[in-house]
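## retry 2 of 3
previous attempt timed out at serialization; input unchanged, resubmitting
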Amino acid sequence: MLLILKITIVPLFIGLITLAGRKWGAGIAGLLGAFPVVAGPIIIFIALEQGSAFAALTAVSAISATACLLIFGLTYSWACIRFSWPLALLSALLAWFILALTLAMASPNLGLALSIAIGSLVMTPFLLPHIKPNPPPKTKLHDLPWRMLVGALLTFSVTTLAAALGEVWSGILAVFPVIGLVLAVFTHHTLGPAQVTQVYRGMVKGLYSFAAFFLTLTLLLPKTSIWAACLFSVMSAIVTQLAVQLIARLITKLSLNNQTSKP
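## retry succeeded, writing output
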């Protein structure tokens, strides 16, 4: 059953994200790609197999590893401006590994993990390339099966490795950028660097709900059942995403009002 879930959930979600991105743009694809579709089930399965206490520690590592997702996207966004996708991917993976190794050695507590996640979420939009996106060309969906296949292989590999390691590396590997990697490489190859940046601008907004999911999971796993903790974590992620979208719209509206009020 677990094997079937590993090789079906993520590919199906990648397919849905690809279709959503084609209809509504790369930013929406990035936003959807930030939801804990890979890491969430991994932590739940770890809780079922290793116990709630182990999974709670893993969830703390997953919170801090939000920064790893962002450094991957930030590095790829800059590298793809100058390099082809293999070199951009290699650069992004190297940046991810260095930060992941640093976090694994530091093994941050919940407070520090939250600080790392929030700090990286706030800073990343300012550090991403400021490229004016061109209207993306209408692309065919001939690469959709390849996206789904790569997603399935990555998910299977990451979850297999995570199950063999301790709680710190389990949490970090659970947040390996499976969906982000697939979106970055295929978007770069088909639509160009500007759209990669749009993907990650959308993903930054989505990762607030990602962090909220694992924070709620960390706090509730030692106190309630696994499935109750999972339900409340999903609700927390949804509420957080609604709040982030509302704040983003208010900021955009205020910015537009200021621009129109200037002489």
